[in-house]
Amino acid sequence: MPKPRSPMTILMVEDNALQRRQIEAQLQPLGHRITSATNGQEALELIKLSPPDLIIMDAVMPSMDGFKACELIKANPKTAGVPIIVLTALSRDAKDRSYAAGADDFLRKPANTMLLQVRVQTHLRIHALAKRSGAPAPARPKVLVVSASSLVRSQVQNHYGKDQATFFEAQGEAQAQAQIGAHRPDVIVLDMELLEGSAQSLSVAIHEAKELRNTPILLLYSPGELETWSRLHEPVADALEKPLVAPETRRRVALVSRLAYLQKLAQA
Predict the structure, then answer these.
(1) Which of 92, 94, 96, 154 is most buried (most C-beta within 10 Å)?
(2) How far apart are the C-alpha atoms of 160 and 255, rounded to whole Å?
(3) At 1, is the pLDDT very low, low, confident or very high (cuts 50, 70, 90)?
């Protein structure tokens, strides 16, 4: 995915100094400006002075936890549009509580570096495009699902809703290339398990084609597979671990579909 034209500001809200340094190291290659706060109350004060482009929020902190801070940030019209990624080691109910508080995304600590980077880049890109376009509702996207597994292809469509998008299918790299040429999908859901060819080479081919390079790719992977993927050489907009779970599949497809729609508006 192309980087924003200029560095953007990320506010990291984390009370543990060691974890702040670790997250900063993970984000440093992206080239953005990173500021920090040690709790929700301090974050709110910093946001009043200068709203960031994205917030990475811990959940458990002194003075004010991340859930309450999310609620207050999203309740304020001046800051409601700032994307928030909750990043926490808390396991019980943390994801549901984060989304209920208004968070835009959720990751567990320790976050895979590639996954953290692509989520940050995608949310920053959407935020920048939405500010220019007024954040209209996404249109019905054309989605190509590429997987050797008929179950995975079916799950993506059923989880997202067959009436919410126009779906096409492919089992391998060559068939995917043919479908891309025939239908020019808005979004590609790409499983690392293909019948022939490789997901890596297909992703690179899409990125290197001038007319396709901005097409968002949602990568599907099995546990342990993401470590073999290079974000810089095989760019994707998001990644989702299998086995697929309906709410998360729906959320991830919706995210990349919104990115695709906003990019189309920006190019119009």
Answers:
(1) 94
(2) 11
(3) very low
pLDDT digits (tens, 9 = 90+) for 190-248: 999 999 999 999 999 999 999 998 999 999 999 989 888 876 667 899 999 999 999 99
Q: Which two tokens stand for residue 115?
A: 């996954």
Nearest to 58 by CA among 42, 79, 46, 81: 42
Domain range for 165 is 142-267
Nearest alpha-carbon partner for 38 in 53, 17, 68: 17
Residue reference for tokens 């096409």: 168
Tell me whether residue 16 is in a domain: yes
CATH number where 257 lies:
3.40.50.2300
Are residues 78 and 189 part of one domain?
Answer: no
Instruction: Out of 87, 113, 133, pick the residue that ends a domain.
Output: 133
Q: 248 with 200, same domain?
A: yes
Number of domains comprising the chain: 2
Q: Are strands 9-13 and 54-57 parallel, antiparallel or unpaired?
A: parallel
Cα dist from 162 to 4, 118, 145, 244, whole Å: 32, 26, 12, 16
DSSP-derived 3-state class of residue 55: strand
> Is 256 among the domain residues?
yes
